Amino acid sequence: MRPRAGRVVYAAGVLGLVLAVWELVKFAVPERGVSVGDQRILPRTGDGALPHVWSVVTVLGERDNSGTVGETLLRTAGFTFGLALLALLIGTVVGVALAILMQRFGWVERGLLPYIIVSQTVPLIALAPLVAGWGGKIVIAGEPWRPWMSIAVIASYLAFFPVAVGMLRGLQAPSKASVELLHSYSAIWWETLVHLRFPAAVPHFLPALRLAAAASVIGAVVAEISTGTAGGIGRQIIVFAQQATGDASRLYAAVLAAALLGVAVTAVVGLAELALRRYSRPAGASRSRGGTR
Q1: CA-CA distance, 90 to 253, in Å (whole number)?
Q2: Which domain holds residue 108?
Q3: Is the keyword Cell division in the record (predicted)?
C-alpha cells in the first residue's frame, strides 16, 4: 500500500506544480505575449487564451442549454467513455488474434508485421470520413450502421497496434528450452500457447494495454471531431471552442475533461492488471530471487 500511496502523492504534487506554473505564466507574461519581430516566443495570457485555474473550476457550475457545464461535460464524457471502452475491446481482440497468428506462422509475421506498422502512419483525420462513408452502406442483422459504430472502429484502429506488437513480443519471450520441455511432454501447439506463451506474454501485454487505452480515447475524440458526431466530448470541445470569444474557461474545462477521461479508461485497465498480477512479473525475476540449482 505504501508504494501506491507514494504514487498518488507524487501525482498530486506534479499536478499542483503544473497549476502553479500555469498561474505563474498568467501573472508574469503580458496579456499579448512576448514577440521578437514577427516571431512570438511567449503565448498570450489574456482570459481568451489562458484563463485562471479557478475560472476553469467555477465555470462547471454555470448554466448551459441542457443544465450546467459540469453536467454537460459529464454526460458527453460518459458517451465517449463507452465508445473508448468498446474500441479498446475490439482493438485488444484484433491485436491478440494477429499476434497469435504471427507467432504461429513465421511467414505471416514477415508478411504482415510491416503493414501493421505502416498502417499507423495513415492520418486518422483522413481515415475517419472513409470509415463513416463505408459504414453508411453496411446493414447488420437488419440494423443500419450507426455513427457511433464508425467512432468505435476508428478508435480501435489506433488501439490494436500496441496490443499486437506487445503481445507478439510476449508470445515469443519463452526460451527455446522451455518450449522443447513442453514438446517432450507431448504438448501440442495449443497447450504450449495456453500454459507457457500466454503467461509469459502478460508482462508485455499489460504495458501495451495501457498504451491502447490511451490510444482508444484519443481515437474516439478525434473521430467525433472528424465525423461531426454529436453527443461526445470531442464534439463538445468544438462547441465550446466556437463560444470562446473572450473567455476560454469552458474550452479548457472540456479539454481537461477529455484528459480525465483517459485516466478513467486507464483505471479500467488497472482492474485487468489486478486480475493478472500473478503473471505480471517476468520469469527471470522469480529465478533470480530463488537462485540457481
Answers
A1: 29
A2: 66-168+210-279
A3: no
| Spatial contact of 182 and 196, defined as CB atoms under 8 Å apart | yes
Residue 156 sits in a domain whose CATH number is 1.10.3720.10
> What's this model's pTM, rounded to 2 decimal places?
0.84
pLDDT digits (tens, 9 = 90+) for 250-287: 889 999 999 999 889 988 888 887 877 766 565 444 44
Q: How far apart are CA 195 and CA 99, in angstroms?
A: 16
- Give the C-alpha separation, 182 to 224, whole Å: 48
Q: pLDDT, tens digit, for every residue of 50-97?
A: 888 888 889 888 887 778 888 999 999 999 999 999 999 999 999 999
| DSSP β-ladder status, 143-144 and 139-140 | antiparallel
Q: Report the domain count for the chain.
A: 1
Q: Confirm whether 203 is domain-assigned.
A: no
User: 2 in a domain, yes or no?
Assistant: no
Q: Is residue 264 part of a domain?
A: yes
